[in-house]
Amino acid sequence: MGADNVLVSGFYHLVVSQVSTRLITFILNLVTARLLSPEAYGLAAIQFHLINTTILFLSREGFRRGCLRMQRDPEGQSQTARILSTAALCLPLGVAVTVAVCSLALVAGGSEGAAQHSTAIMMQGLAAFIELLSEPLYILAQMQLRFRLRVIVEGGATLAKGVVTLLLLKFSLQAPALSLSFGQIVYAGVILVGYLAAYAPLATHFTLQAAEKHLLAEGSKMVMAATQTSYNQGVYGLVANLGSLVVRTLFQPIEEAAFLAFSRSEDAKGEREKGTNERAQILTVLVRCVSILGLLATAFGPSYSFVLLRVIYGERWSSTEAPAVLGVYCGYILLLAVNGVLEAFVHATVRSRELTIANLWLVVFSVVHIALSVVLVRVAGAQGLIMADAANMVMRIAYSLLFLRRYFTATPTFSLGRLFPGRHTMAALALAFAATSFSQAVIMPHTVSNSNFLIGTGVSGALTKLLPLAVRHGSFWLRAGLHVVVGAACLVAAAGVIYRSEHQLWVNVRMLRQSAHMS
């Protein structure tokens, strides 16, 4: 299967997986958030999430990346045995990591270290290890491009977890912490059973990089858990879950499919120049597409964060600093999207001799990221954490761009400038951002910070008086509706400009799809 075919097939099935699981998760999280206080929600969104992801990242991510980069073997059975024997090494490591992480969480529990809280932490560790038991079969499924299996298993596990958690919370059968942990155990159990049913009979080089990557990805949550109150953790957790919905649903499948595509194209021998040109074309199309999507989030997200939170979570959450934090996160989405594709390429093509250098730079980025997080969280709270995350993404993007420039030195068809949208697209989205910000300041001035220029100078108040009396004193729904109409008009106008100015991009996308169908 060619690289472009792997990309399209992998992207399709991974999007189906992410859309189904994230939609289910979003709906169930929405109901769960209404049943929990900010303190209880913060416990699940920050502390329990951190325990679970830390165990899984440190135990499996290195083996996952290493196995996926193994050369394809003409003898299927020998390849399967090699993959399973290598991937199984994550299990003893997982035992040690689980014990260490849970012990650290119990010691750091402080005043919250009551019996129920301690039990919940141990249950989270158990859930992580149960999920880790399925890792060898997960890696084998990825190597065999069985994307549909992942769709079914993860979708079923997410649904089972949500239903069990909601039932326990709704009928108060257990304390919130225990209910959430029971749900995580159910999720892990369904994952394991699903892969065991599919494979009834049936590296190490990247472990350090996985630990560093996890520190980069979860460093802000570590700082938040260590320095902020449960209330602030709840606000940040809600925004992170909602703001990353697009990232997990769309950008993560692109990143994973791109990694598989670039890894496969590296396997081709005797066609180095052709393979390099193919990778350059795929990379250019992907980065440009995700850049446009990220810019759309940056242009429209900040002005509609309050309306979104008010509609789906109610006044209880929209009256906190969550809208402002979500607005900042919308800009962060752009950096996440671009970095995801660039790092997928780097990880798929970097040579072993360059891996040590890459790891050293990741250590530097980790130190800077954590230092910035500690400083900025004290200055700007949750918004400061996102700013630190953004600075981290900028450093990683810069390193990836330097790698690309060296990698494609002998490829005249590649240019760093072609990776990003043209000036007409940028101008259209900048105007859309200005128009929607102006609309929010005039139509819904109470949702804008006093530091805003239009609010601070009194321009917003003067223009608001020009609105019809029915709008000025109308309900939230009337003003929000008018604000949304303005945004929709700006979106249509911006989409028209993007369609015309990015014509060559759409041609390249169609060519990739046709090439995938033909191979």
Automatic annotation (TrEMBL):
It is a multi-pass membrane protein. The chain crosses the membrane at residues 40-59, 80-108, 120-139, 151-173, 185-208, 282-304, 324-346, 358-379, 385-404, 425-443, 476-499. Coiled coil: none annotated. Pathway: Protein modification; protein glycosylation. It comes from the Eukaryota. One of its GO terms (biological process) is dolichol-linked oligosaccharide biosynthetic process. The keyword Manganese does not apply. This is Protein RFT1 homolog. It comes from [Myrmecia] bisecta.
